[in-house]
Structures are given as structure tokens and as C-alpha cells.
Amino acid sequence: MDHRELLNDWFCHQVLPLERSLTRFIQRNWRVEAEVSDLRQEIYERVLVGARDALPQNVSAYVYAVARNHLINRAKRERIISFTLVADLEGGLPDHEPIQPERQLDARDQLRRTQEGLDRLPPRCREVVRLRKLEGLSTKEVASRLGVSVNTVEQQTTHGMRALVDFMLGGAGRVQRPRALRKNRERRP
Questions:
Q1: If DSSP codes are grouped into helix, strand and coil, which group holds residue 122?
Q2: Would you say 127 and 143 are in contact if contact means Cβ atoms under 8 Å apart?
Q3: 8-state DSSP, 130
Q4: HSE, side-chain direction, 13 A CA sphere, residue 61
Q5: How far is CA 73 from CA 14, 39, 43, 70, 143, in A?
Q6: What is the mean pLDDT of each run of 10 residues along the chain (189 residues)?
Q7: Distance between CA 65 and CA 18 in Å, rounded?
Q8: What end-to-end distance do the CA atoms of the chain give, in Å?
Q9: Is the pTM of this model over 0.85?
Q10: Contacts for 139 with CB less than 8 Å, ≥ 6 apart
Q11: Kind plus residue range of the DSSP H or E element containing 149
Q12: Are 130 and 123 in contact (CB under 8 A)?
């Protein structure tokens, strides 16, 4: 079993079973209910990226530490800053150094790779991820726009982000459906 498969297996068997309690943790610690599923997906992404080099021994502690840190960082970013403070800060900023060519190339490569991963997603999944993550629409807004249920939007976002993370980590970037659903589909005439 290669490292990518090991990481995927670890995520499915060790991290995903924590989803219900992780969701409750986020709901208790975040004031905007509409952002809970987005935050959970962002936490999953950070958990996967952090576990690439070595799988943590205590999965639950690791996931909740990542969640806590992400919520703290997100809260810090969303603080309201007064316009006068921003004006004062802008006036006192030193001249910016030009962005290094290596960083520009790396950023372009990452952007190209991300677009390539998005292009590999099934059409509905791609549209849901685009609306949720790129346009910043809420789950309810996407559901209303596409004429699907909120649950469908959440599932498509989960599948799409997992496939995109897999692709960014060097995998095939295919949408993986839960085995129970695949078995039910195989039994249908």
C-alpha cells in the first residue's frame, strides 16, 4: 500500500468517524451556523496536509488541536479593523519588495494544478465546489441556485474537496463514494 492510499485509509477510518463530534465542537465554538460545514471541510484539509509526513498517534487529540487552532486563526482574521487604523497602517508601510520570480512561478504552478484538479471533478461536484469555495456562497444559497438539497451540497462539497486534496497530494483526484452507496447501486437492476 503506497503512502497516499495509507493516508486515505487513515482519514476514512480514523478521522471521518469523528465528524459528528467535530461538527458539535465547531457549533459550540463558532457563532455563524451557516459556516460550520465550511469550517469542517477546511479543518479536514488541514488535517490531511498535516498528516502527509507522519500519521499522528492520537488522532482525536490531533484533529481537535487542528480544529481549535483553525477556529482561533479564523476569528483573528475576521476581527473588524477601524478605517482610521487601516489608513494609519497604510501610511507607515515601507516600500514593498517585488515578489521573487520563484514565488510567482510556484504560485502559478499551484494555481494551474488546482484548476487541473477542479477540471477532473464531475460537473455537478465541480459547480458546487466552485460556488462554495471560489464564489463564497453559503450551502443554502448553492442549494437554492442549483435546485438541490442542502444535504446534496454538503456531500458534493465533501467529495469534491477530498478529490481535490487527493489530486494536490499527487493522487488521481477521483471522487470516492462511500462503499455502502456503491454496493446499493450495484444491486439495483
A1: coil
A2: no
A3: I
A4: 4
A5: 25, 12, 12, 5, 28
A6: 83 90 89 89 92 88 90 75 41 48 74 85 91 87 93 91 82 69 50
A7: 13
A8: 34
A9: no
A10: 34, 37, 38, 132, 150, 153, 154, 157
A11: none
A12: no
Cell reading at 33: 451556523
In this structure, what C-alpha cell is assigned to residue 50? 498535516
d(CA 72, CA 19): 19
Contact by Cβ (8 Å): 3, 166 = no
The C-alpha R_g of the chain, in whole angstroms, comes to 19
DSSP state of 6: H
- Which letter does DSSP use for residue 52 in this model? S
Distance CA 189, CA 185 (A): 9
The C-alpha cell that represents 66 in the structure block: 487542528
The dihedral sign for the CA sequence 10, 54, 72, 165? negative
DSSP state of 96: P
Grid cell at residue 95: 516600500
With b meaning 16 or more CB within 10 Å and e meaning fewer, what string describes 66-104? bbeebbeeeeeeeeeeeeeeeeeeeeeeeeeeeeeeeee
